[in-house]
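Collaborator request, handled under Task 6.
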Amino acid sequence: MQGCSRVISGYRSALVGVIGVLTLEAMMPMRIHEFRTELWLPLPPAEVFPFFSDIGNLDAITPPWLHFHIVTPSPVVVTEGAMIDYRLRLHGFPLRWRTRINVWRPPHRFVDEQVRGPYRQWIHEHTFEAHEGGTLARDLVRYAVPMDWLVHRWLVRPDIERIFQYRTEVLRKHFTAVAKHQP
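Structure tokens returned to the collaborator:
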């Protein structure tokens, strides 16, 4: 019985420690990070933007190691206020993610924001600017993560960089192929 008491006491101490960390996290100011990237695509914004307005293309530009799946039934009409649900796995953990489209300005800009998901904040602005006979596609992500001090530098930022690197490669290949087949 005494061993059982020690185990229960150990679990109680661990639970108090976890609650303490979570309470401390909730009291800490949210640290906002920014991630920026840009890519020149060989087509004008009016021909690039439709690719991004079709959420089915998210599968193509999301790395396979995320096991990304759109949960919202098709067809999804993307407009301001639209909500889109996803499932994915990150480092083996299953995650649910809900996005709201806050701004929808075809063919130049849209902004999606995580309403539910792994981040304390995730606001992703996509812009498409005519540039040198094509489109300069820019991404600006403002994000905050739980336990920033512990996970941002070693897990979150490298993951974001890998995801966007994959996305850049896929978009470059796709739009180069499309441009080659145009008259």
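The cover message to the collaborator said: "DSSP finds four helices and seven strands in the chain. The beta strands are 33-41, 69-70, 83-90, 93-105, 109-116, 121-131, 134-144. Please let us know whether this matches your experimental observations."
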